[in-house]
Amino acid sequence: MFEDGDLLVVNKPSGVAVHGGSGISSGVIEQLRAARSGLRFLELVHRIDRDTSGVLILAKKRTALTGLHTQLREGAVRKHYLALVVGEWKDPKRNVKAALHKYVSSSGERRVVVNAEGQQAHTVFRLVSNLSDFSLLDAELKTGRTHQIRVHLAHIGFPIAGDDKYGDFDANKRLAKLGLKRMFLHAASLEFCHPRSTQVMRVEAPLAPELERFL
After folding, report:
1. Largest Cα–Cα distance of the chain, in whole Å?
2. Among 4, 49, 51, 168, which one carries the catalytic annotation?
3. Distance CA 205, CA 153 (A)
4. Which of 75, 91, 97, 112 could make an SS bond with 147 (beta carbons 3.0 to 4.6 A apart)?
5. pLDDT in tens, 71-100
6. Is this prediction's pTM over 0.90?
7. Which of 165, 157, 113 is closest to 135 using CA atoms?
């Protein structure tokens, strides 16, 4: 979606991991390094879940990487996601502040739970539209914890449609029959200062075609 001498911004499809590991031989970073073998430096600036689509930033220079990491640490990067949830959402805007704790299950699966002794996490949800038994939400991340949006929504009783880890499994079966074969979570936009020019940039990724069709 954007490229210059410092940054490469892509619209990652669902089902592709950002990097290899845990039984996945190749992710976005490995594929792009292979495709751009002439680049001396290419690193992920941040991560999004394998089943989530949308905006993903990579740095082509170490100075760009460290500059954006500083912005992320300081909360200067604005991240907005679109999520379809099960249930009728009432509030125009809702702040969810619930600490999150990461652990590895006995089967080796990485999971996250709400736990007061975990890391502070804050998400702002805004209602986009109600769709019969579902609601389309804008989720703004104020912190960037693993699985934050998914766990916060499940915690307050509005699981993400198609989420096979924290979702409503009966609803997911019904949704699959209606054509939703993936989790409905999309990294819609990122706003940040360009690490070299300091110009404010906003990159928006259109909804994946399969999500548009389902809506």
Report:
1. 51
2. 49
3. 22
4. 112
5. 999 999 999 999 999 999 999 999 999 999
6. yes
7. 157
Exposure pattern of 87-124 as b/e (b: 16+ CB <10 Å)? Answer: bebeeeebebebbbbeeeeeeeeeebbbeeebeebbbe
Region 172-192 average pLDDT? 96
When pLDDT is cut at 50, 70 and 90, the band that residue 31 belongs to is very high
Find out whether 136 and 84 touch, Cβ atoms under 8 Å: yes
Q: Give the 3-state DSSP-derived string for the chain, with helices as H, strands as E and coil as C.
A: CEECCCEEEEEECCCCCCCCECCECCCHHHHHHHHCCCCCCCEECCCCCCCCEEEEEEECCHHHHHHHHHHHHCCCCEEEEEEEEECCCCCCEEEEECCEEEEECCCCCEEEEECCCCECCEEEEEEEEEECCEEEEEEEECCCCCCHHHHHHHHCCCCECCCCCCCCHHHHHHHHHHCCCCCCEEEEEEEEECCCCCCEEEEECCCCHHHHHHC
